[in-house]
Amino acid sequence: METLFAVLIGLLVAAGVFLLLSRTIIRVVLGLAFIAYGVNLAILTVSGLRQESPPLLTLEGPYVDPLPQALVLTAIVIGFGTTALLLTVALRAYQVAGHDDVAAFGDNLARNPDAPDGQHADPEHLSPDLPEADHTDEINAQRAELERLRRIMR
């Protein structure tokens, strides 16, 4: 039984690493989830997989420590919340950048929109996500309109 679980753990971690090395943001999130599932299964496997020793104190026989099962249950809940948060951040990054390529995410995700000159987090390495030069007039007009609206709101 332990051999089967060891192979399953290896497959989950291998699939997770493969997805984690991808350039698509959703695959990266799924890769992290697969690795977490593999680690949870490893914790359960190490704690023991004997059917004759249940974690119930009302039954006779040798007992299994219930702590690994409680840890895995907690890890599942935390992993679900983390995955939901990462998917939300991935969706917002896709909306801002317009693509889901992790390697091409650039400085515009860290740009300060309130800065007067469009200040970048790293001015030496500008983003590949920056708009083309022929759209600068439209962007400047949008920024001027936004600034006008901000003044009206104050």
TrEMBL record:
InterPro entries: CPA3_antiporter_subunitC (IPR050601), NUOK/Mnh_C1-like (IPR039428). Residues 108-138 are annotated as: Disordered. Keywords: Cell membrane, Membrane, Transmembrane, Transmembrane helix. It is a multi-pass membrane protein. Coiled coil: none annotated. The chain crosses the membrane at residues 6-22, 29-49, 69-91. Residues 117-138 have a biased composition (Basic and acidic residues). Its main location: membrane. GO terms for cellular component: plasma membrane. Pfam families: Oxidored_q2. It is found in: Cell membrane. Belongs to the CPA3 antiporters (TC 2.A.63) subunit C family. This is Na(+) H(+) antiporter subunit C. The lineage of its organism: Bacteria, Thermotogati, Deinococcota, Deinococci, Deinococcales.
